[in-house]
């Protein structure tokens, strides 16, 4: 069989590098704006809402409804000034997250991942970073949380094509944080009981800077 033309080897939304990882650092401003401008910002669902505390459903339909959801997620993320947003954070029970996040070198990454799975890292790549972490669904609260400073996620793009995304530093934290969301975990679930209580107290004492869905 003849080798396929390079442009035909990957039919996904984003190009890939020589190792098969998406190149999500090009045309970031234009791509994010194109999504956001056709989306509607929705209020953020906060800790305590059941949709945040269970595994989401797999994405199986990559049609117009998903495209509009992704657009709404980019719009909501911008309103809340976040760097990543999972679908259940706007009340939608589907495994999809968007991101607009810099890495520790200041390089901007913008993309969409459906049905993400974190790749288990070999021991030699598991260097922990205990930087501070926050969450739009736990507004105004922050806590130190140790996570690997490198992460890989596999999944699908918004058209259903397979994707591999990798990141370091802050972006690695984002990939892990958003994937956690879609399996029913908030970052505060990884804290000690004392630290979790302190984070929830921070949240209770302050007003979020963006619209949220009240837990009645």
Summary tags:
216 residues; alpha+beta; Peptide Deformylase; 5-stranded antiparallel beta sheet; 5 helices; 11 strands; disordered N terminus
What does this entry look like structurally?
The chain has 216 residues and is α+β, with helices and mostly antiparallel strands. The chain has one domain: Peptide deformylase (Peptide Deformylase), CATH 3.90.45. It is 27% helix and 25% strand. The chain has five helices and eleven strands. The longest helix is centred in the middle third of the chain and has 17 residues, at 64-80. Mean pLDDT is 93; it is low at 1-10.
Q: How many beta strands in the DSSP annotation?
A: 11
End-to-end separation in angstroms reads 61 Å
Roughly how many Å is the radius of gyration?
Answer: 17 Å
Order of strands in the sheet with most strands = 2-3-4-9-10
Q: Provide a count of the helices.
A: 5
- Broad shape: globular
Question: What does the largest sheet look like?
Answer: 5 strands, antiparallel
CATH class assignment: Alpha Beta
| Quaternary structure state of the chains depicted | single chain
Q: Could you say which structural class the secondary elements and strand pairing correspond to? A: alpha+beta
Give me the CATH superfamily: Peptide deformylase
CATH architecture: Alpha-Beta Complex
SSE ordering: HHEHEEEEEEEEEHHE
Quote the CATH topology.
Peptide Deformylase
What level of helicity do the residues show? 25-40%
Runs in which pLDDT lies below 50 for 5 or more consecutive residues are 1-10
Quote the average pLDDT. 93
**What percent strand?**
25-35%
């Amino acid at each position: 069989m003849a080798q396929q033309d390079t442009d035909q080897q990957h039919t996904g939304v984003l190009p890939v590098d020589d190792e098969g990882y998406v190149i999500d650092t090009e045309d970031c401003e234009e791509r994010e704006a194109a999504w956001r401008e056709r989306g509607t910002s929705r209020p953020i669902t906060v800790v305590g809402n059941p949709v945040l505390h269970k595994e989401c459903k797999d994405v199986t339909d990559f049609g117009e409804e998903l495209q509009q959801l992704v657009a709404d997620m980019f719009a909501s993320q911008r309103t809340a000034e976040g760097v990543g947003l999972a679908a259940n954070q706007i009340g939608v029970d589907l495994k999809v997250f968007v991101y607009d996040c810099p890495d520790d070198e200041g390089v901007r990454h913008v993309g969409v991942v459906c049905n993400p799975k974190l790749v288990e890292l070999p021991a030699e790549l598991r260097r922990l970073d205990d930087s501070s972490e926050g969450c739009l669904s736990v507004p105004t609260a922050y806590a130190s949380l140790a996570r690997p400073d490198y992460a890989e996620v596999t999944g699908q793009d918004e058209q259903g094509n397979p994707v591999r995304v990798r990141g370091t530093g802050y972006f690695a934290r984002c990939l892990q944080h958003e994937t956690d969301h879609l399996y029913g975990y908030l970052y505060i679930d990884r804290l000690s009981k004392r630290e979790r209580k302190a984070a929830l107290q921070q949240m209770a004492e302050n007003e979020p800077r963006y619209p949220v869905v009240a837990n009645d």
